[in-house]
UniProtKB/TrEMBL annotation:
InterPro entries: Mug135-like_C. Pfam families: Mug135_C. The lineage of its organism: Eukaryota, Fungi, Dikarya, Basidiomycota, Agaricomycotina. Residues 115-193 form the Mug135-like C-terminal domain. Belongs to the UPF0612 family. It comes from the Eukaryota. This is Mug135-like C-terminal domain-containing protein.
Length: 195
């Protein structure tokens, strides 16, 4: 791939001051020696300013010059402007695959938990596994903070709000069935065969 980054403009020298010799034109991009020379130039200007030999403008320009050198050198080591876009384009297909794998993993976790729960009867001897919601999130996570459905009895003990939240997590929006029917649908969603 060709380097699409525009050339880095050279660091301009500070204005002539008739007291302190200007440093030589730095390389483009500046190398370590250029930064050191800029530092010494700035140090000389600070002394001259303290002695009243240069004005505030030259004093400020010497700091600007030194900072421009440091910034240009650091910028040369940083990623070029096109890099982020190129990386994003290269990573998009990978991110799409990862998103698909995340969905498939959530579906597998859901099917695995439901299959286990179908064999656990009412969950009193062997507690139910927690079945993720349709979006892959877990009902007991901080996002939902619902009680775990470990037995058929814990489903029966759900408050009306908790049963609404469970129902919406497993079946989505739409019309909300009556409370008794909603609990039966929650049992079906997690693989509980016994009331």
């Amino acid at each position: 791939m060709a380097d699409l980054a525009p050339p880095i403009p050279p660091v301009a020298l500070p204005p002539l001051n008739n007291i302190i010799n200007l440093p030589p034109q730095p390389q483009n991009p500046p190398v370590d020696r250029d930064v050191v020379v800029g530092y010494h130039y700035n140090k000389d200007i600070v002394v001259a300013h303290a002695d009243g030999l240069v004005d505030d403008h030259h004093f400020a320009e010497s700091f600007t010059y030194q900072l421009n050198l440091v910034q240009a050198q650091a910028g040369a080591a940083a990623a070029p402007p096109w890099f982020h876009v190129a990386m994003q384009q290269a990573l998009d297909p990978i991110n799409q695959r990862l998103d698909r794998l995340t969905v498939l993993t959530a579906q597998a976790a859901r099917l695995s938990a439901v299959s286990y729960n179908l064999q656990a009867a009412s969950g009193t001897t062997r507690h139910f596994e927690i079945v993720p919601f349709r979006d892959g999130s877990y009902p007991t996570s901080g996002e939902h903070n619902l009680p775990p459905l470990l037995t058929s009895g814990t489903i029966t003990a759900l408050t009306p709000q908790q049963s609404r939240d469970y129902y919406r997590g497993y079946y989505g929006g739409g019309n909300l069935p009556a409370a008794d029917h909603r609990l039966e649908l929650i049992r079906t969603a997690i693989g509980c065969k016994h009331p």
